[in-house]
Amino acid sequence: MIAAVLIGVLVVLVGWGWSPVARRPADDTSRADTGTTENDPIERRRPRRRERPVDPVELAAWCDALARAVRGGTTVRGAFTQVEPPDSIVAHHRHVALALERGAPLGTALDIPPPVPTHLDLVLVVLRSLALHGGPSSEPLDRAAAALRQRAAIIGERRSQSAQAQLSAIVMTLLPSVLLAVLLATSTGVREAVASPAGATVVGIGAVANAVGWWWMRRLIHGRSAW
Length: 227
What we know:
Layout: H1 2-18, H2 30-34, H3 41-45, H4 56-71, H5 76-82, H6 90-101, H7 106-109, H8 120-133, H9 138-186, H10 188-195, H11 197-221
Helix pairs in contact: 1-9, 1-11, 4-9, 8-9, 9-10, 9-11
């Protein structure tokens, strides 16, 4: 009986550990562009396509392309409309391009309604500053690209360390339970001790403490990040 309970706890912990971590949904601006709402029966039948998270490396490459266009003699407004944006910000780029087509200045068109995706806010601040204050445009875009690549490097290092910590948490959580299961299967004395009221109580307390420790380690590993 106790062995079955331990096996069930192991299955739950392993399933919890390998389940994907919930992420914040991407900004849904496509419906605002098409004019549909959740009450539209066609929109309800249409499967929603999850937008890609904004990749700082792709944004950095986009900033490089904008800087090259500006150095070639194109204005910031012209570079914004001519250079193809990354797929992750197509909806936001379309919002700004539509405002520009309607005659809005670039600084006003760049005021995207919140929430603005992470990393894109940095690029918008640089473009808005260039549109409002002028001056050399290629150097700020190059610096924005460098900052985005530095962010990407930090995020990659953080993910690597998080994966190592998660593996350690799995080993520390499963090892006591696996060891107890092996002892229950091979030792009569351990089975008799665990079958006693005191032994069953100790095993139950240990299982609860193990589960709480697993939950706490997951909370530390997958805590909120500024990026």
